[in-house]
Specification:
single chain, 191 residues, alpha/beta, Nucleotidyltransferase, domain 5, 5-stranded mixed sheet, 5 strands, 44% helix, 20% strand, globular
């Protein structure tokens, strides 16, 4: 089932990866203009989800959470039927060097969810700094990106963007980056 009632509207998903809190943003885009007609986003807190005790005992809690995250994304993709998916890429932060490996691992599980949906669909990866730059805020913080999204899409959001958590807004910002790539490279729409 499509996540929208119109045949000329496609969905684009953007992901904010993680091992506990993850975000998913969705833009409903009218073709061939590439006009955003509706947006929505979610944050998943995997610590609030039931974990498989066998997986926890065998592989550890982090792997069990990542499996929950993978299944959550796979179910959302199955419902939303995105034509394109993007994600923030793993990045190394010298202040928290131990976070890099789990972030890379989380992207592996996201890739599995995308392949479960459509094994031929690529994932467009963006550095977090590139997402902020594309959104017009360079090195500014998450609040500045959220303000830009409110300015762009506050009137067409399913729920008020001001109520979203940062992971949801990051996911929507990634979705907008993907839409801009397609709009600029494929002005007549996807073939």
């Amino acid at each position: 089932m499509l996540g929208h009632p119109y045949h000329d509207v496609v969905t684009i998903c953007g992901i904010d990866p993680g091992t506990t809190l993850v975000g998913l943003g969705v833009e409903y885009v009218k073709l061939p203009q590439w006009e955003v007609v509706k947006v929505q986003a979610w944050t998943l807190n995997a610590t609030r989800m039931p974990l498989d005790p066998v997986v926890v005992n065998t592989h550890g809690e982090r792997v069990a959470r990542l499996m929950v995250i993978r299944d959550w994304y796979a179910s959302r993709f199955s419902y939303l039927r995105p034509m394109a998916i993007g994600s923030e890429s793993a990045f190394y932060n010298s202040g928290t060097p131990g976070a890099y490996e789990p972030l890379v691992e989380s992207i592996t599980y996201i890739r599995q969810a995308v392949m479960d949906y459509d094994r031929h669909m690529p994932i467009h990866f963006f550095k977090p700094t590139a997402v902020k730059k594309i959104m017009g805020h360079g090195q500014h913080g998450k609040l500045d990106v959220a303000k830009a999204l409110i300015d762009l899409y506050g009137t067409i959001s399913v729920t008020p963007i001001q109520e979203w958590q940062a992971h949801a807004t990051d996911g929507l910002a990634v979705a907008d980056c993907v839409r801009r790539i397609y709009r600029d490279q494929l002005p007549c729409g996807p073939s």
